[in-house]
Amino acid sequence: MKCDKEQLLLYAVTDRSWLNGAALSEQVEAALRGGTTFVQLREKMLDTEQFLQEAVEIKKLCAKYQVPFVINDNVEIALAMDADGVHVGQSDMEAGSVREKLGPDKILGVSAQTVEQALLAQRRGADYLGVGAVFHTGSKADADEVSHETLKAICEAVSIPVIAIGGIGEDNVMQLQGSGICGIAVISALFAKTDIEQAARGLREKTRRMVDGE
Question: Which residues participate in Mg(2+) binding (predicted)?
Answer without folding.
Answer: 73, 92
